[in-house]
């Protein structure tokens, strides 16, 4: 089965071009855009871990290693497309245009962080596994009904493919020919469970066959390849050719979350040892150096720019107005039910008197 | 004087559950545990730590990420002679399995006139107050007390946790076993090393009092006790009852307590509307209406999704809110 779903790659671990057919995609501008976004989300990711360790935010979900998948896919989207992320895909949402300040507020336990950027269709990160795949199908169907050429993309991990919602989402999307891309990041583990114990199939891509839609397998550490495959799938979707399932084979170098200890279930030293070969940022750097696209001064300037943006966002988060308890009551319904109005009133009366 | 020495060890609530599971895995080879990350990882909260090493991968099974799958598989196992215990990683992730629970776990005995029974336990950590991400804090015990055919148990300390988890595993019917996350690593209790059970369906009086009955369970027990402590300074004494089982409720202990004090304050962190507190109010109405000296008060979470952690302490009942309600019923 694996042979039917070969791993698509454009640039190998050494930065060499392996598929010459795609040469014209590999422009300096494109490479620099990818590099900037990958560096940006990696810097942010490291900061997230540091902030959690310093107790300045709550549990954080790192994605280091998955930058190629997240940036490559997010940059394939057009402005009015829909993005349905999980808790681990904040790299993709940031790249697509999510607001960095709000993102940080979310990690700080603030509901304000679930509100999407106004210019983009980004659903709040789905915490229950696989539940957003049917949403993506539905949003995509709505675009068809409205007669647009917009599409939707849903992100999910390898573990998600075991849930009923994964199968139901693919099935309904395929039956209705919805313009949606199901973008799987197979990062090898669902918390402690290695993918071999998650499923008995050799690839995730092959699961597409059961739903009569195309399945593609791509090297998730190769940002160019990911971008190409996702673009192609979105193109199909826009042309009325229906959904695609994409498996981006990637790796999460770090823990599942900052509350997780990976040494309990895997050899972290062995994982780190693969950085040299698998790191998507390093791979792009090697490619750029080989192609004479690398420019130290440019790299230094974007590093500084990214750091500045991040520092400002962190200080904005930390000086954000205090959480207001009214927020928890005020958005449950458009017109509040009497129960909630009464509870809010009593709570505020009590709070005024006692807390 | 003849005294049998019971050997005890100081355990946290989660260690006591681990201990109870170990006792049952050792005693009955038909028992097995299924769930996500419970084997090698020992569970995200370490409830099953060490058990796979000791009992092997067939008894402590790391399943795919598939709640409907492994709860449904547990149904098949239970009707075919095994005693499965499933771990749901957080109660808020039980929803994919809800269909299995509502349509099969709870009604197989009825549907087959007792031909098939489902001796299975569904364990799930629940509750707010540990700064978890969204959905991880749900406290939806009422969804299960509302379904006929499953018992619902919720311990608040290590001793009860071990005794109740063993009782749940031995119970011939399905039991929903709710574990208050916030109390997992709170205090330690002396827990007997040997096997013992705590009867399902029986509450426990934690503190004797005359003026008001406080009825609570799970993570609200420390809140209730703190409120009762504060009331002592004002010479109001509280009868504090840990209900421990939410279905079937211990009607006798509720009635006995309320008939003594004439006043009741129910504390739960779940949403108010349709919560178990409403059911307890009804039990009091049925058994003790003429003893009441004031309307029953409920101190609960609100009818809102449990907020992210910046506001979760606003959502959760506090000792101050309980004190306010105690004063209200006493001064009525
Ligand atoms: C329905 C449901 N069950 C359990 C969980 C707890 N949980 C959170 S992440 C996770 C593993 C997910 O693995 P995968 O889908 O591979 O995505 P990854 O986290 O590796 O990106 C689990 C079990 C959950 N969020 N939702």
From TrEMBL, chain A:
Give the enzyme class. oxidoreductase
- Record's CDD domains? TPP_E1_PDC_ADC_BCADC
Q: Which Pfam families match?
A: E1_dh (PF00676)
Q: Which reaction does it catalyse?
A: N(6)-[(R)-lipoyl]-L-lysyl-[protein] + pyruvate + H(+) = N(6)-[(R)-S(8)-acetyldihydrolipoyl]-L-lysyl-[protein] + CO2
Highest taxon above the source species: Bacteria
**Single annotated GO MF:** pyruvate dehydrogenase (acetyl-transferring) activity
The cofactor named in the record is: thiamine diphosphate
The EC number(s) attached to this protein equal 1.2.4.1
Q: Which UniProt keywords apply?
A: Oxidoreductase, Pyruvate, Thiamine pyrophosphate
A single GO BP: branched-chain amino acid catabolic process
User: Carries keyword Oxidoreductase?
Assistant: yes
Recorded hits in Gene3D superfamilies, A to Z, give: 3.40.50.970
Q: What sequence ranges are listed for the domain Dehydrogenase E1 component? A: 38-323
InterPro entries membership: Alpha-ketoacid_DH_E1_comp, DH_E1, PdhA/BkdA, THDP-binding
Task: Quote the subunit structure annotation.
Answer: Heterodimer of an alpha and a beta chain.
- Its biological purpose: The pyruvate dehydrogenase complex catalyzes the overall conversion of pyruvate to acetyl-CoA and CO(2). It contains multiple copies of three enzymatic components: pyruvate dehydrogenase (E1), dihydrolipoamide acetyltransferase (E2) and lipoamide dehydrogenase (E3).
Name this polypeptide is given:
Pyruvate dehydrogenase E1 component subunit alpha
Which gene does this sequence derive from? pdhA
């Amino acid at each position: 089965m694996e042979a039917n779903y070969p791993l698509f790659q454009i640039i190998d671990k050494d930065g060499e071009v392996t598929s010459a057919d795609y040469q014209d995609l590999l422009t300096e501008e494109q490479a620099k855009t990818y590099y900037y976004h990958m560096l940006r989300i990696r810097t942010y990711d490291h900061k997230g871990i540091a902030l959690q360790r310093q107790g300045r935010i709550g549990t954080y979900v790192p994605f280091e290693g998955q930058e190629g998948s997240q940036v490559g896919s997010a940059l394939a989207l057009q402005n009015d497309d829909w993005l349905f992320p999980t808790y681990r895909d904040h790299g993709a949402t940031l790249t697509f245009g999510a607001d960095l300040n709000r993102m940080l507020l979310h990690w700080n336990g603030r509901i304000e962080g679930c509100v999407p950027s106004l210019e983009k269709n980004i659903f709040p990160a789905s915490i229950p596994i696989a539940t957003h795949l049917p949403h993506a199908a539905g949003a995509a169907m709505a675009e068809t009904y409205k007669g647009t050429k917009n599409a939707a993309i849903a992100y999910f991990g390898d573990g998600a493919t075991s849930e009923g919602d994964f199968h139901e989402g693919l099935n309904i999307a395929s039956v209705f020919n919805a313009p949606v891309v199901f973008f799987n990041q197979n990062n090898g583990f669902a918390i402690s469970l290695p993918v071999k114990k998650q499923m008995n199939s050799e690839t995730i891509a092959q699961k597409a066959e059961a739903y009569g839609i195309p399945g593609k397998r791509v090297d998730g550490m190769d940002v160019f390849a990911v971008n190409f495959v996702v673009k192609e799938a979105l193109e199909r979707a826009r042309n009325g050719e229906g959904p695609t399932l994409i498996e981006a084979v990637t790796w999460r170098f770090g823990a599942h979350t900052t509350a997780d200890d990976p040494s309990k279930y895997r050899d972290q030293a062995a994982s780190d040892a693969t950085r040299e070969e698998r790191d998507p940022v390093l791979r792009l750097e090697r490619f750029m150096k080989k192609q004479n696209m690398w420019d130290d001064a440019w790299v230094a300037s974007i590093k500084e720019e990214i750091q500045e943006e991040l520092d400002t966002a962190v200080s904005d988060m930390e000086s954000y107005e205090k959480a207001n308890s009214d927020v928890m009551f005020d958005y449950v319904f458009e017109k509040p039910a009497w129960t909630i109005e009464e509870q809010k009133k009593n709570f505020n009366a009590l709070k005024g008197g006692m807390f | 004087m003849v005294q049998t020495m019971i050997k005890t060890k100081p355990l946290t609530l989660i260690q006591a559950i681990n201990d109870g599971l170990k006792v049952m895995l050792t005693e009955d080879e038909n028992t097995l545990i299924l769930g996500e990350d419970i084997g090698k990882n020992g569970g995200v909260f370490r409830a099953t730590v060490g058990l796979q090493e000791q009992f092997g991968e067939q008894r402590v099974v790391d399943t795919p990420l598939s709640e409907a799958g492994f709860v449904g598989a547990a149904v098949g196992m239970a009707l075919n002679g095994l005693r499965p215990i499933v771990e749901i990683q957080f109660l808020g992730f039980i929803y994919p399995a809800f269909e299995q629970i509502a349509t099969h776990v709870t009604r197989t005995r009825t549907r087959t006139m007792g031909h098939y029974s489902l001796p299975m336990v569904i364990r799930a950590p629940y509750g707010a107050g540990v700064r978890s991400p969204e959905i991880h804090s749900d406290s939806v015990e009422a969804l299960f007390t509302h379904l006929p055919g499953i018992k619902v148990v919720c311990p608040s300390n290590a001793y009860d946790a071990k005794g109740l988890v063993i009782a749940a595993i031995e119970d011939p019917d399905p039991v929903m076993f709710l574990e208050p996350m916030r109390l997992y690593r709170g205090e330690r209790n002396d827990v007997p090393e040997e096997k013992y059970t705590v009867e399902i369906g029986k509450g426990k009086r934690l503190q004797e009092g005359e003026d008001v009955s406080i009825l609570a369970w799970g993570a609200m027990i420390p809140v209730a006790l703190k409120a009762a402590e504060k009331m002592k300074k004002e010479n109001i004494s509280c009868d504090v009852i840990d209900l421990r089982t939410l279905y079937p409720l211990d009607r006798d202990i509720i009635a006995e307590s309320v008939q003594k004090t004439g006043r009741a304050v129910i504390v739960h962190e779940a949403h108010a509307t349709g919560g178990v507190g409403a059911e307890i109010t009804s039990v009091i109405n049925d058994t003790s209406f003429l003893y009441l000296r004031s309307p029953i008060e409920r101190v609960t979470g609100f009818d809102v999704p449990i907020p992210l952690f910046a506001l979760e302490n606003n959502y959760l009942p506090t000792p101050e809110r309980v004190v306010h309600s105690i004063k209200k019923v006493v001064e009525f």
